[in-house]
Design a protein that fits this description.
Chain lengths: 762, 150
């Protein structure tokens, strides 16, 4: 889900000449040179171009790949470099990665969310590398005065085939600078069997820094004369400072200033929450100072938000008919005439991102210009919002992206960056804003809270003839658009309107729900509750029908076919992760294959000892298909341990299988934490939880003993990888718990629901 | 005045002695490999060795370090060649990397005390170190590999 709409129409690109180097910008309409631009040649601005990667070759032979996507653990800096280096046929040891400044005019979208880095830029990055290769070949041909067809670039050397003469890439840079850029027609992309790096396991380019402490994250930024700011924010979303007594805070040694910040009223979008900032020469002094503030808060309109009360309202919302988002056949009639009828309600609470690195950002403000360094997933949103808040032109805001100590969606929202910018201007010094863990959890853009009601009808053969799904949850759009109570098309498009089941009578509805806190996207977004309800309910129906859950899922999905979304009864606008269904259809054969693969690898159907069970789930999200089998063992006291997990993924073409496996492991373990303990509850308008002590996340003891990731070989277009591993986890885990205990978990987290032990659960 | 050695170098500190070692290392010595994750001893991101034992720098006041030896990730090895670091590299453990320096310091202390830990001992020793990216399966494997190698 990406509510910050990224203009894919922004097709202009700029070309820069690096010091002593040649910079290529690639667009679908081809490449242009700075020299052309200087001569005043018209800009290649068309409507169908996605500007992509930069690549710099210098005369030492160093290839610098400029990565415009943010690194937060998904290994994108490595994958981007692999793609460009492969098509360039560069020697990996001579490839360096440089992080791009925030500049979407130059690079295209830099919004690193929605698992879209590879799926949106695979082609453009390949073209960047191939353009470089064609240019080097042209340069060598010119130097030797031979036809370009007689030369070949390979592993950093261009060779003249008949004479055997060679020139290194670096040696060709001077000549290459004088040549026109090869057009699209002149470049040759490799055939997949020619790939040198793509599809191979490659270690992270940041490995050495990450294991030595040298890696630089936002929290680590330091500048001469910098002040550290810690902010007391309104405890309730929508609140503001009534009055503040900062005299004690100002007396803390090291504290230099106390500054009050305005609170943007809800919906506050990307604007900061306001409050009172304490600026000091050290982090410790700023923290001490904040403790001494005496603030009288106006808690605003959401001071009574209470999760227990809200849950009742949400559940009421899904017990009534809602807004129809998809309808095929006549679900009501088919349910009434079903030979067996089932219904179930599911609940998934708020979650907090709790990425390991709390938010932090550094800003300077001089001569009307703001310079930012931050761990941001979305540097352009940071630029735009800082410009808006400071009322300066966006060109006067520069954003440098550090490594991110985790993101999961939280760091696409630049509120924390704007805080730093406002304070830097106010005090005229570099300011680093530091959020504590408590700040981070209490002032998150929370994963929403969802209630769902499902009904299903089986015929005499145990075949599903009708399916009703109602969902209600505060929409992310409420953070941006006042008065939002219904979900966006993109939100119901995550699991509901894209349901692949071959059920003749299908009805999907969305009930109203107002947002009483700040809602945002969290790794895999609304797929989390939707996949939980869908794959859990499928399991419930399978058991009701007396069938094996895996076979039942395959039956529900039906024969291999491309689902025709124009005939799927959609009332909501079709939504497919910003892609068309023609380009990325819903292919039930791909669901089947991941299910069959995961079943085979996990030993599905093989007997397990008592207290053990397996659960299975499948979900398509971000254009990839993932099936997960989780095996649980439930101890006598109800503790859940996980001996084994198997994940099968079809993500289309895969660049770095090593990182795909890592993402499946990480997403699954995060999903296990979400399922077993993840819960933010609100009381009197504020989150009850505030640190890892009361907001529990997965620790090592929750991690599976054995983990198998099985990647389906594919030449399809790339799908997403960072998020799709999460949605199947909750249903697979709860289905496994059911298999082990006959106890059905319909409300997350599992937490203490098994505390009585298996005996009582039975 | 508090004196201590940090990564083999003598340091003297004359500020607020209640300040956690974490902020002294990061803000004053510029040793930012020791991370801030929770501030309350709940995540392990700030793990350093104090006289050879793993401690949480976020809850260790500078006053408690008087006369003692601190090793941070920057001092674990010169060139990332500590057996634990080598094993981390071989298993491609880090994702975002933010927790990993703390994990490595914790694992190094574990192997110092228990050169051949079993799985239960690994889980127990590492339970205080959160990895929100979920690299635990590889952390276990890397520790087992480092134990064999050491
Ligand atoms: S920062 Fe010290 S344990 Fe979390
Ligand atoms: S690698 Fe990201 S938190 Fe551990």
């Amino acid at each position: 889900m990406n509510s910050q709409s990224t203009s894919m129409e922004r097709r202009e690109f700029v070309q820069l000449l690096g010091a002593g180097g040649l910079v290529l910008a690639v667009s679908l309409s081809g490449c242009r040179r700075l020299s052309d631009a200087l001569r005043g040649a018209p800009k290649a601005a068309t409507t169908s171009v996605t500007p992509a990667a930069y690549l710099r070759l210098d005369d030492t032979g160093t290839v610098t790949v400029i990565c415009h996507r943010s690194e937060m653990g998904q290994g994108i800096r490595t994958s981007v470099a692999m793609i460009v280096a492969d098509e360039l046929d560069a020697d990996w040891s001579q490839v360096k990665v440089e992080q791009a400044l925030g500049d979407e005019k130059t690079y295209g979208s830099q919004n690193t969310d929605g698992s879209r880095s590879i799926r949106d830029f695979y082609g453009a990055l390949r073209e960047a590398g191939a353009t470089g290769r064609a240019l080097l070949e042209a340069a060598a041909a010119k130097q030797w005065s031979v036809p370009a067809s007689e030369v070949e670039a390979r592993q950093h050397v261009v060779t003249h085939r008949s004479s055997g003469r060679t020139l290194g890439y670096g040696e060709l840079v001077a000549t290459a600078r004088e040549l026109p850029m090869p057009g699209k027609a002149a470049i040759r992309l490799k055939r997949p069997e020619q790939f040198r790096y793509i599809g191979k396991d490659m270690p992270s380019v940041d490995m050495a820094d990450m294991i030595s402490g040298a890696a630089l994250y936002g929290m680590d930024l330091r500048r001469e004369g910098m002040l550290v700011a810690v902010i007391a924010r309104p405890p309730v979303y929508g609140g503001a400072v009534k009055s503040v007594d900062s005299s004690a805070a100002e007396k803390v040694p090291g504290v230099e200033r106390v500054v009050q910040l305005d609170s943007a009223p809800p919906p506050s979008a990307f604007m900061p929450l306001g409050g009172v900032a304490v600026l000091a020469r050290s982090t410790w002094a700023a923290l001490q100072g904040r403790q001494k503030l005496k603030i009288d808060w106006d808690h605003g309109p959401h001071a009574t938000y209470d999760s227990a009360v809200f849950r009742t309202e949400l559940e009421r919302s899904v017990r009534r008919a809602g807004k129809v988002v998809r309808s095929q056949g006549n679900a009501a009639r088919a349910l009434a005439s079903a030979s067996k009828r089932l219904q179930a309600d599911y609940y998934v609470p708020h979650l907090s991102h709790a990425q390991m690195e709390p938010l932090a950002a550094l800003a300077t403000f001089e001569n009307g210009k703001c310079d930012i360094w931050a761990p941001t997933q979305h540097p352009q949103a940071a630029r735009d919002t800082v410009a808006l808040a400071l009322k300066i032109p966006v060109e006067n805001v520069r954003v440098s992206v550090t490594l991110l100590g985790g993101g999961f969606g939280r760091k696409s929202k630049p509120d924390f960056i704007v805080e730093a910018a406002l304070l830097a201007r106010e005090v005229g010094k570099p300011v680093k804003v530091v959020w504590t863990r408590e700040d981070d959890i209490q002032h998150d853009y929370f994963h929403t809270v969802a209630a769902q009601h499902l009904e299903g009808g089986l015929d005499a053969n145990g075949k599903v003839t009708s399916w009703l799904h109602r969902t209600a949850f505060p929409s992310i759009m409420a953070t941006f658009v006042p008065g939002t109570v219904y979900a966006g098309d993109g939100e119901v498009g995550q699991g509901i309107t894209d349901l692949p089941f071959a059920v003749p009578n299908l009805r999907c509805e969305n009930g109203p729900a107002a947002a009483l806190t700040r809602i945002g996207w969290y790794r895999s977004v609304i797929n989390i509750p939707h996949a939980f309800a869908i794959s859990s309910f499928a399991d419930e129906l399978a058991h009701a029908a007396g069938k094996d859950p895996k076979g039942f899922l395959l039956e529900l999905i039906g024969p291999d076919r491309i689902i025709d979304m124009t005939k799927a009864g959609l009332v909501a606008k079709p939504s497919n992760y910003d892609r068309s269904f023609e380009d990325y259809p819903i292919d039930t054969g791909r669901y089947r294959k991941v299910l069959e693969l995961v079943a085979e690898k996990s030993g599905w159907g093989k007997p397990l000892g008592s207290g053990r069970g397996r659960g299975i789930a499948v979900h398509r999200s971000f254009l990839s298909y993932v099936a997960t089998v989780i095996e649980v063992e439930i101890k006598a006291d109800g503790t859940v341990t996980i001996p084994r997990v198997d994940v099968a993924i079809d993500a289309g073409t895969v660049v770095n299988p090593e990182r795909v496996r890592a993402q499946m492991e990480g997403a699954t373990i995060m999903g296990i934490g979400n399922t077993l303990y993840g819960e933010i509850t609100f009381k009197e308008g504020r989150p009850v939880q505030s640190n890892y002590t009361d907001y529990r996340v997965a620790r090592i003891d929750a991690a599976p003993r054995e983990f198998g990731v099985h990647i389906l070989p594919s030449t399809e277009q790339p799908g997403g990888v960072g998020e799709p591993g999460v949605p199947p986890v909750a249903p697979a885990l709860c289905n496994a718990i059911f298999s082990a205990t006959r106890r059905r978990i319909r409300s997350l987290p599992v937490d203490k629901q098994l505390a009585g032990g298996i005996a009582s659960a039975r | 005045m508090i004196s201590m050695t940090v990564n083999g170098r003598r340091q003297e500190f004359s500020g607020d002695e209640a300040m956690p070692l974490l902020w002294y290392l990061r803000d004053e010595l510029g040793l930012t490999g020791t991370k801030f994750g929770c501030g309350v001893s709940a995540c392990g991101a700030c793990t350093v060795h104090l006289d050879g034992k793993a401690v949480r720098a976020c809850v260790t006041p500078v006053s408690a370090v008087e006369g003692r030896k601190v090793i941070t990730i920057e001092g674990l090895s010169k060139d990332g060649s500590h057996p634990v670091q080598r094993a981390w590299r071989a298993h491609n453990v880090p994702q975002c990397g933010y927790c990993q320096t703390g994990q490595i310091m914790q694992a190094a202390a574990l192997l110092e005390a228990t050169p051949k830990p079993n799985d239960a001992e690994i889980d127990q020793a590492m339970a205080g170190n959160i990895c929100r990216c979920g690299t635990y399966v590889r952390i276990r494997a890397a520790i087992r590999a480092a134990a064999v190698e050491a």
